[in-house]
Amino acid sequence: MRFGFIKTLCVLWLAAIVLLALSAPLITSADPYTPVSDMLQSPSYHPPLGTDALGRDFFARTAYGARLSLSIPLLSTLLTVLIGTTFSLTAITAGRLSDRIILTIANTALAIPGLLLAMLLVAGFGPGLSTIVLAVGLGGIPGFIRLSRSIFLGIKEMGYIDAAYALGASRTRVAIAHMLPNAAPQLFSLATTHFAWAFMGTTTLTFLGLSGDPSFPEWGAMLNSGRMHLIQAPWLTIVPGILISLTILAVHYLGENYADH
Amino acid sequence: MVSKSHRRTALLAVIRRLLEGVGTAWAAVTLAFFALRFASGDPVASLLSQGLASPEQADEIRISLGLNAPLWLQYLRFLTNLLHGDLGSSLYTHRSVSQIILEQFPSTAVLAVSGLIAAILLGLILGITAAWFGKRASGMIAATIAALATSIPVAFAGILSLLIAGCLLQEPGSANGMLIRLILPAMVLGFASSGPIARVIHSGLSESLRSPFILAARARGIRRGFRLLWHALKPSLPPVISLTALEAAFLFTGTVVTETVFSRPGLGRLLVKSILDGDFPIALGLVALAAIFYTISHVFADLLTLVIDPRLRRAE
Asked: What is the ipTM of this complex?
């Protein structure tokens, strides 16, 4: 198998972003919360990406921002995948009635677009970062249930599932020991595409100012606050905007092409 | 020839789809109500924490909003009021929510409709170019733009367009005002929603271009041109219609961001403001209406595809 050129680029990009997040304190000594010099300085030798409207080192904010911007959708994707998979696996293995009920609820919930459901939950919980994790995580569940259910549906038709039942395996055992491991690669691909959605959703919510405190270094929130100084300091919006777009592009591409194999 | 019994089964299918739609809308509204209550607990708490009401006043507000009643009774009241077009009143201004929404509706409707038109046009152009020119440079470029459209957040696309417009137009005039107020937001919204349409057209058209009926058409002497394109395009249009209905609803989340970027009044900004303020009747009313609208557009799309796609009618 030839590992495509674009695929390599995507992997490299994501690795760079993760590295940026992990090594933020090593590559910059500046604190993302405290002003270091005059406000709205242009990119220069020091500080490398200039400063924002409050005189904070913008490179430090971008680097620390990678931590929040990646971990929020990662946590909410975990939440979605755990709850969603539990429901869809139950739906497929526990009998017709539970399948009917779970599918009906999921389809109904899909009548509210996921991001809108997330916004409604933020309205209830009150703005904040942990709220966004919960809201994006819960908001993505209905769609995930429907897609993962169809994966399990395909696996249920396989001969080895019939064989397991014939050998006397219980429903729980078939679900956990046979269906789950065999669905894992497809579930992983689904989770990857879902992460792109969660990432987009998170940055959208923080862009709308729903993270509660605008001082958090987070790319969506930075995109929002940079907007006020679009003409004097365009890098304040262009840098986080490009980071967000390229990350979504890379995850999308990898998720889709993983599914092809 | 359409026989009588044939027509009756078709009618039954339509009625069944309509009833399903009503059921879905009801269930979605219910979900919205309970999701908000599950998340918030006490809606008046935000008033208390902001010091906008004393504990005694908060109790009064609870009674006037009917929040002291058991949850199921509140739910029944919400549902019956909704059927009468009454969505309650704002926690802060005490104005009727339906009134507030009606005031902001035209602005969002204009933006959403022009955004949808832009999305369909752009999706068609990108999808057709990508399929028709295939592996040639123009085809690849179209496919890349379509991929970018799904990956670039609406917020960033909007900001970029403002930046470009700001560089191109130095002095603001009346024509520029129109450009900033409607044309630019609609194009940004359309660009962000054109990706999926382009994709469906791309795959549908490339498939039909490879199929035998196109070979037959070319054998009959139809040259590679508009007539052949139309011939090949027709079978891939029905899925585009149901997709457009889906998009119409998702467009709402897009308008929320677009309105924020372009500082345009409308339902989207109303929603963001109500969430930030903790004004839950407005947020709930907007989401409930969005869910109802989504269901209606879905049912409508299903019926429309049934009418225009002869393959589905035969299957009934």
From this structure: 0.84
- DSSP output for A149-217: HHHHHHHHTSHHHHHHHHTT--HHHIIIIIIHHHHHHHHHHHHHHHHHHHHHHHHHHHHTTTTS-TTS-
CA-to-CA distance for A75 and A248, rounded, in angstroms? 16
Q: Measured between CA atoms, how close is B250 to chain A, in angstroms? A: 6
Chain A: nearest CA to B300, how far in angstroms? 14
Long-range pairs, B226-233, Cβ under 8 A, ≥24:
B229/B128, B229/B132, B232/B205, B232/B208, B233/B128, B233/B201, B233/B205, B233/B208
What residues of chain A lie within 8 A of the CB of B271, using their CB?
119
Q: Which of B36, B150, B276 sits opposite A127 (nearest CB)?
A: B276
Residue B2 has pLDDT above 60, yes or no: no
A2 vs B233, which has greater pLDDT?
B233
Q: Is A111's CB within 8 Å of B40's CB?
A: no
- The stretch A20-24 carries a mean pLDDT of 87
- Residue of B275, B296, B300 best to disrupt the A interface, most CBs of A under 10 A: B275
Contact B280 A119 (CB under 8 A): no
Q: How do residues A45-64 score in pLDDT, each as one tens digit?
A: 676 777 777 778 888 888 88
Q: Model-level pTM?
A: 0.86
Contact residues on chain A for B252, CB-CB shorter than 8 A:
113, 116
Report chain B's mean pLDDT, rounded to a whole number: 82
Nearest to B274 among A123, A220, A252 (CB): A123
Mean pLDDT over B296-309 rounds to 80
Distance CA A149, CA A138 (A): 17
Would you place residue B171 in the very low, low, confident or very high pLDDT band (cuts 50, 70, 90)?
Answer: low
